[in-house]
Design brief:
The complex is a heterodimer of chains A (953) and B (84). Chain A is an alpha+beta fold. Chain A contains 25 helices and 50 strands. Chain B is built from 1 helix and 6 strands, in the order βββαβββ. Chain B has one helix at 34-41, and strands spanning 3-6, 10-13, 18-22, 50-56, 64-70, 76-81. In chain B, strands 3-4-5-6 form a 4-stranded antiparallel beta sheet, with no helix packed on it. The chains are: A alpha+beta (953), B mainly beta (84). The A-B interface holds A 246-248, 250, 252, 265, 267, 406, 665-666, 696-697, 700-701, 703-707, 709, 843, 847-849, 851-853 and B 1-3, 18, 20, 27-30, 32, 34, 37, 41, 56, 58, 62-64, 73-74, 81-83.
Chain lengths: 953, 84
């Protein structure tokens, strides 16, 4: 395809010596280094680049940058895949494969184009009305296939970079004239400056408008400012968009660098928004045809990429700014006619004097053509032929970020624009985004916001900026289809319909018609939509208000938001000090809470029976290092523990251990654990493995709430110690071989006591406490000695025990796991520990909640054992059924269930309504439609008397 | 994305903190009525504007603090240790 017809032989930012090959919908094309995808496609003169969202209408380019609503493409380049690449923003690269999205076939020949013929049957809200019967979900899959944007390839991950963080004095968004003036002033006043620009070059509109600043060409001036401020230490981020403003002057940026790009989190003392304006389309019949383009965008294509957007051009406008584009196109030989809705203006006279044809007091009524425009019919009935209809319906300041900072936009009828209202702290809006009427005004505002004086702003040859006025709605007649929101296919008729159906409030209108809800957030459509709403309701734009702008300003790939936080970087695993030893032993490691622990040594299903049997008959060793070791010290330590624990701890004798529960203020079991009184003013809390952090915070909360901070202190030592539990009837003999300097005789060292001493000369704390039901010694040593103790214990005859086997052993004993048996409603008396509630008269956390009618009432779920009928282990999660007059109701569930090695039959724990008083009752249990039967028994299946704790072989 | 001033550590990102609830809620004694207990346990002031809030600097020093904060514009007027 010949693309030279549309490309000037010189000028622009492109490098003609570097040709880039790419393809679009199977066509082989080329562009140049410096092109965007859009400018290369425009140079290749391909009119239909996309199909519209709902009606599958042919669409071409409307804009030249972020305002573009139509041309979103599927992009493949090497390993990179972006299903929603924005053609106007993405720089062209050699080898890009581009395809239109949303079309069945290609954009040019879309098999779904027929949908457009049914337009009258599918206005706004049609699916709310049409697809209700019998059920929306019947239609949803087909509708979803026909609508939407790009298709995600679930097998691919976008590459993304870690987030960057930066603190600066001054963050300036937008490097047009005002932004550059602000940066220059900021650097001069000695501030740290960050300048953010979403295009590939600095200068903003100076890149395509003729301006003279500080005696040089605008674009050249921009370059020199960039050089000088960079040299002075300012940071420049190109191809970067500020997507959101958050509390306390936080700015989130998205840098399009590579695949998904990079997120920057900025904290700025002062934010300057120099975000500029975008042009609005005009409202007339078939204004969505390929070949209808924003006038200023057509100028950007010409000046930056040397691409002629058209050769026979009708400029339709109501403001002077458009004349610059017309004159530029006339200067390169395009035939240009200006249709101006106004009767007179100075620009008109100047254009006529320069030989341009201007038709005054007329409007475009309808664009003519099919897959590309052929011309335009004017309000007088006159027809003009054209291959480009360059339109300007006024200007919309980009104040989204100001609105994110809870600024309220105000309607300015003179400019016909929503402008920033009251000032927000730490934030300034400058330049055309703030309604500047000339280049000099923009430069002065920028310089002032940057910390300088307006008088210090660079001198310029003044360039007025004509805002035009409010949107012209006269051609939005009912005779034609007039597009308001191109990306979501919302027409003027849809807005009229919404108003007729009483969706008159702006927020209702938006949701009913989806106006402004597409990925461009209505950048080109909102104000036109508001103007039409005003026509239909008779209220002014100022009175009807605006919809809420929310971040992000632009779509940001989820992969960029994720950044590096994937897998273990998202949820880091805690690891045991001797993980390598467990791996060597053949452990299958699994995550328990946030810790990677040995589930079993060997495949879990095969190993459990062997490990459980060893625990009941010989000696096992378990890595229990994750158990908490929280020290509570000081003269008020007993009082703090009494307050935090449901079980009194101040009566504990030094050297002794006690099992206890801690409650929340609502009386629910927060955690359980064993407390050691190591010395009169020193306690060690051994809480559940995964609750250590929460337990420390819980203790700290009550300490700070009601204790003298100088008299009690909480200190977590968990990670310093490794704890190896040596358990089983033979455990005393094994421990004796580890050269302890502690008397192991049961009279000197009874169950539920602890001794401090040494083994193999290493400092050790040994506690006699059992979670298996057998004799057990928990040996705590410095983590650095754990490997040696493990190996020597193994050599003395202990078999390694995994977490799964431990869980089966404790289930057989009726020992609960907090969070497995219990939930946020379980109180101590529900698990058989009701005594303290009746006997304690002092205050403790949760005390009053245990006395409420609900706590005292019947129907509470209580811990029971379930003896299965038969030899099948009952499924965990099965619900106990209560049948009453043909209705079934769940009265509880099975929380743990295992094969009980000690008793030789299945054992299970369950939480059942009033279960404690129903022992002996037989119940049905249902799990995914299968019924099981079991009998309620006491929770402890194995050795209820506790005799096994003292047994030796 | 707020910056909260920890009285012990200075200004830090809100990601390090955990919101607990209303500050200055005296714990009633055990012989209070069910109604008083429910007020203490479950009811929140849900203030619009100035509020005294209890926070914990969980991923920092671990200490508890009272923030005097505006719930509408998120301005922080003051931060105090919980236990003075």
């Amino acid at each position: 395809m010949n693309s030279s017809l549309r490309r000037l032989v010189e000028g622009g930012e492109i490098d003609r010596s570097r040709k880039l090959e790419f393809s679009f919908d199977g066509l082989s094309l080329f562009g140049y280094e410096g092109d965007t995808i859009a400018s290369a496609l425009l140079a290749a003169d391909i009119p239909v680049l996309a199909r519209s969202f709902k009606y599958h209408r042919p669409r071409g380019l409307l804009g030249a940058h972020h305002e573009e609503p139509n041309v979103i493409l599927d992009l493949q380049l090497g390993t990179r895949h972006d299903p929603n690449a924005r053609a106007t923003v993405e720089p062209l690269r050699d080898g890009m494969r581009l395809a239109s999205i949303h079309a069945k076939g290609t954009a040019r020949r879309d098999k779904l184009a027929i949908v457009d013929y049914f337009e009258r049957f599918i206005p706004a809200g049609f699916y709310y009305k049409t697809f209700m019967w019998p059920n929306w979900h019947l239609y949803e899959p087909a509708i979803r296939r026909m609508t939407g944007l790009g298709r995600v390839d679930a097998t691919r991950h976008m590459q993304s970079a870690p987030h960057h963080h930066l603190s600066v004095d001054l963050c300036i968004v937008g490097a047009g004239a005002a932004g550059l003036a602000a940066a220059q002033a900021g650097v001069r006043s000695g501030r740290s400056v960050l300048l953010v620009e979403q295009r590939t070059r600095l200068g903003g509109a100076l890149l395509w408008h003729e301006a003279t600043i500080a005696d040089s060409h605008g674009a050249r001036w921009a370059e020199s400012v960039a050089e000088s401020i960079s040299a002075a230490g300012a940071k420049l981020l190109m191809r970067t968009t500020a997507v959101g403003l958050y509390d306390h002057n936080a700015v989130v940026l998205h840098e399009r660098d590579g695949d998904a790009g990079r997120i920057w989190q900025i904290r700025a003392r002062q934010i300057v928004l120099a975000t500029g304006v975008i042009e609005r389309p005009l409202l007339f019949g078939d204004n969505d045809l390929p070949g209808v383009m924003l006038a200023d965008s057509s100028l950007e294509y010409l000046r930056r990429y040397a691409v002629l957007a058209g050769q026979r051009i009708v400029f339709a406008t109501g403001n002077d700014t458009t004349y610059a584009a017309a004159r530029a196109y006339a200067a390169v030989g395009a035939s240009c006619i200006i249709v101006d809705s106004r009767r007179n203006s100075s620009a008109m006279e100047a254009a006529r004097a320069a030989g341009l044809e201007v038709i005054v007091g007329e409007r475009v009524e309808r664009a003519l053509g099919g897959q590309r425009i052929r011309g335009a019919r004017l309000s007088s009935g006159m027809t003009l032929s054209a291959d480009l209809l360059a339109v300007s319906g006024g200007w919309t300041p980009l104040i989204h970020l100001y609105c994110h900072a809870r600024g309220r936009a105000r309607w300015d009828p003179q400019r016909g624009a929503l402008l920033p209202g009251e000032a927000r702290p730490g934030l300034r809006v400058v330049g055309s985004a703030n309604g500047a009427r000339s280049l000099s005004e923009a430069l002065a505002e920028g310089a002032e916001a940057g910390g300088g004086n307006a008088a210090d702003a660079p001198a310029c040859a003044d360039l007025p900026f004509d805002w035009g006025g409010a949107p012209d709605t006269r051609m939005a007649s009912r005779r034609y289809r007039v597009w308001v929101d191109l990306q979501h296919d919302v027409t003027a008729k849809d807005i009229a319909l919404a108003v007729r159906e009483n969706f008159r409030a702006v927020e209702h209108l938006k949701r009913y018609t989806t106006l402004g809800m597409a990925s461009d957030q209505g950048r080109t459509s909102n104000v036109n939509g508001l103007a039409l709403l005003a026509v239909h309701t008779g209220k002014s734009i100022a009175d009807s208000g605006v919809t809420t702008f929310r971040p992000p300003f632009l779509p940001v790939p989820l992969a960029a938001i994720t950044g590096a936080r994937r897998g273990e970087l998202q949820a880091p695993l805690r690891r045991l000090a001797i993980e390598s030893v467990h791996r060597e032993e053949g452990a299958e490691l699994r995550g328990y809470g946030d810790t990677l622990r040995p589930a079993a040594y060997g495949p879990v299903a095969d190993s459990m029976l062997r490990e459980c049997t060893a625990a009941r008959t010989g000696c096992v060793i378990l890595d229990a290092s994750t158990l908490g070791k929280i020290e509570v010290l000081g003269p008020d330590a007993p009082a703090l523990l009494d307050f935090v624990f449901y079980t009194r701890m101040s009566t504990l004798l030094p050297g002794r251990l006690r099992y206890g529960l801690a409650l929340t203020e609502s009386g629910a079991i927060f955690d359980d654990g064993v407390v050691l009184r190591a010395a009169p003013e020193r306690f060690v809390i051994s809480c559940s493995s995964s609750h250590v952090t929460a337990m420390v915070a819980h203790l700290e909360a009550w300490r700070e709430d009601r204790f003298d901070l100088a008299r009690v202190y909480v200190h977590d030592t968990t990670p310093r110690w490794s704890t190896l539990a040596i358990s089983g009837p033979d455990s005393q003999r094994v421990l004796a071989q580890l050269d302890p300097d502690i008397d192991l005789d049961d009279a000197a060292f009874p169950h539920m006591s602890a001794r401090v001493g040494s083994i193999f000369g290493y400092d050790a704390r040994i506690a006699r406490v059992s979670f298996t039901g057998e004799r057990c010694y928990e040996v705590s040593v410095a983590a650095s000695h754990a490997e040696e103790i493990w190996r020597r214990t193994r050599a003395a005859g202990a078999i390694p025990l995994g977490v799964e086997a431990l869980s089966a052993l404790r289930c057989e004993k009726g020992f609960i796991l907090v969070g497995v048996e219990t939930d946020g409603e379980t109180m101590p008396h529900d698990i058989g520990m009701g005594r303290a509630r009746e006997t304690r008269t002092d205050s403790y956390v949760g005390d009053r909640s245990l006395q409420t009618p609900a706590a005292r009432g019947t129907g509470r779920r209580q811990l029971v054992g379930i003896a299965a009928d038969g030899d099948t282990v009952l499924p965990v999660g099965a619900h106990a059924l209560h049948r009453d007059a043909g209705r079934r109701r769940s009265i509880g569930w099975i929380s743990s269930s295992h094969w009980g090695v000690g008793v030789g039959r299945p054992v299970a724990l369950a939480m059942i309504e009033d279960g404690a008083s129903r022992h002996g009752e037989s119940l049905e249990f249902e799990h995914f439609g299968t019924l099981h039967r079991g009998t309620l028994v006491a929770p402890c299946f194995y050795d209820p008397s506790g005799a096994r704790l003292h047994v030796r072989p | 994305m707020q910056i909260l001033p920890c009285p012990y550590c200075g200004p830090r990102s809100d990601a390090e903190f955990h919101y607990v609830g209303d500050a200055d809620k005296p714990r009633p004694s055990r012989d209070c009525s069910d109604e008083q207990w429910v007020q203490y346990l479950l009811m929140r002031r849900n203030a619009r504007g100035a509020a005294r809030e209890l926070w914990v600097h969980r991923s920092g020093c671990g200490r508890w603090l009272v923030l005097v904060r505006d719930t509408v514009n998120h301005e922080v007027q003051a931060a105090e240790p919980m236990n003075r």
